[in-house]
C-alpha cells in the first residue's frame, strides 16, 4: 500500500512538473527501504523557516547548477516560480548576475555560491546571512543549497542523468552560467 501511494505521488510530480521521476521509481521498485529513507530527504528539501522564498530558491538553484545540466535545475526553476519567486530573480541567479538580483536574493546567492565553491569568503557571507536572519537563516540556506545538490547527484549515481537541455523560465530561455568566469 505504501509503495502504491509513493508511486502515485511520483507520477503526479512527473506530470505536474514535466520531470522524469524514473530514477526514483526504480529505487522504489528495487530497494523500497532505501526509497523510503530517501523520502525523508525529499521532505527536508522543503525546509524553510526564516529566509524569504527567493533566498531559499536562490540557494537551491546554486546547488542544482553545481551538479546538474538541465532537468533538476528546471524542476527547481518551476518550483521557484510556483512559490512566487519573480522570474527576473530566477534568471539573474541562472546567469550568475548579482547586479540584477535583489539584496535578499544576492545575499543568498553569494553565500550558497561561496559554500559550493569552498571559497575563502564563505565565512564573510555566512556572517552576513547570520546578521540578516540569524543562525536559523544559515541553516535554511545551507539545507536549501545541499538539497539542491542532492537530487542531481542521486540521479547521476543511479545512471539516469543523461539529458542536458536549456532551462526556460516561464517560457523564456535563459543562458545559464554554471561557474564564474
Q: For the residues shown, what is the average pLDDT?
A: 91
Quick one: overall form?
Answer: globular
Largest sheet: 2 strands, antiparallel
Distance between the terminal alpha carbons, to the nearest Å? 50 Å
Q: Give the class from helix and strand content and strand pairing.
A: mainly alpha
State the order of secondary-structure elements, H for helix, E for strand.
Answer: HHHHHHHHEE
What would you note in describing this structure?
There is one protein chain. By secondary structure, the protein is mostly helical. The protein has two domains: 1-44, no CATH class; 49-174. Helix content is 69%, strand content 3%. The chain contains eight helices and two strands; from the N terminus they run ααααααααββ. β1 (167-169) and β2 (172-174) form a beta hairpin. The longest helix is centred in the C-terminal third of the chain and has 36 residues, at 122-157.
Amino acid at each position: 500500500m505504501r509503495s502504491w501511494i509513493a508511486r502515485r505521488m511520483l507520477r503526479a510530480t512527473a506530470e505536474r512538473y514535466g520531470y522524469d521521476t524514473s530514477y526514483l521509481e526504480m529505487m522504489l521498485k528495487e530497494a523500497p527501504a532505501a526509497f523510503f529513507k530517501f523520502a525523508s530527504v525529499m521532505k527536508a528539501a522543503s525546509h524553510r523557516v526564516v529566509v524569504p522564498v527567493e533566498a531559499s530558491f536562490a540557494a537551491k538553484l546554486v546547488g542544482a547548477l553545481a551538479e546538474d545540466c538541465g532537468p533538476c535545475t528546471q524542476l527547481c526553476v518551476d518550483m521557484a516560480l510556483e512559490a512566487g519567486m519573480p522570474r527576473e530573480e530566477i534568471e539573474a541567479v541562472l546567469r550568475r548576475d548579482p547586479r540584477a538580483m535583489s539584496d535578499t536574493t544576492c545575499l543568498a546567492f553569494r553565500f550558497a555560491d561561496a559554500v559550493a565553491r569552498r571559497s575563502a569568503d564563505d565565512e564573510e557571507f555566512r556572517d552576513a546571512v547570520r546578521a540578516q536572519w540569524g543562525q536559523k537563516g544559515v541553516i535554511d540556506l545551507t539545507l536549501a543549497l545541499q538539497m539542491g545538490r542532492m537530487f542531481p547527484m542521486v540521479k547521476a549515481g543511479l545512471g539516469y542523468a543523461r539529458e542536458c537541455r536549456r532551462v526556460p523560465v516561464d517560457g523564456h530561455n535563459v543562458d545559464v552560467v554554471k561557474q564564474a568566469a
